[in-house]
Amino acid sequence: MTAFCSRLGRDHRKLGVRPVHFEVFEAALAEALRRSAGERWVEALERAWLRMVRFAVAAMVDGANGSLTEPAYWNATVTDHQVRGPDVAVLRVRTAEPFPYRAGQFARVQSPLLPGAWRPYTVACAPRPDGELEFHVRMTGPGGVSEALVAHTRVGDVLRLGPAQGSTTLDEARDRDLLIVAGGTGWATAKALIDGLAQSRAPRPTTHLFLGARTTADLYDTATLAALEHRHHPWLRVVPVIGAGRGASEEGSVDAAVARYGDWSRHLAYVSGPPGMVAAVVRRLTEANLPPDRVRYDPGHGLR
Known about the structure:
The protein starts with a helix and ends in an 8-residue tail after the last strand. The relative contact order is 0.12. The protein is an alpha/beta fold and 304 residues long.
């Protein structure tokens, strides 16, 4: 919890949050709870709430103070914008200053069309020598950040990026074989992890990639998939799982395909994609005796 709140405090710098804002928040929260609880509100309950709030605030302030040497946010110029189907776009951007991150992490993105609105998207590549970053965005509804990025962003536009976050990284990926499961634009996380493995000079672990899609038309990044096949990475095995239509897989769903394929109990697993898919895959893996602490995914970050 301390680590989580510390990262949150670092991220909140982009919103201009200062320690005095936490004092106002504490007073407002206590008053709101007191009014809502009515007769059930007692002094011991208030003390418990305030202990929790102050614990979180202290970690957030420490996180913010520890990151004062880095920008609160990074300006990123769009260098390429490709629409891949009716609701998906692949964007490449380059920041004015170096953007530190690890393969598999995400950053919150703000469009100038919606000041103050930030949404998380995984950086779909490992760090590159030219500093260029890639994001895969699916439009999830009208009027939001995703629509601004897919339908109304052009080359030359300047976006804002918050600091890199997330624990779906390769830090512990050297001692075990890997299972990577992705669906939809969760492919961005899988692509970054595979990119990081390919760049590594250390021996690569045997890696199975299960890539789920509703139909073959939903595989929006086929050029990259073809390149993976062409390079013949001996450590990588790619298993497409198509839900319906031409080329549909026998299992139908990616979680069923993973469960049927083999024994993953000794692997380290990474899961990314729509929340329902992530939940189903995680449940299948834990039921198949893969310890939960060896399943990596970012809760609440499933759609991107």
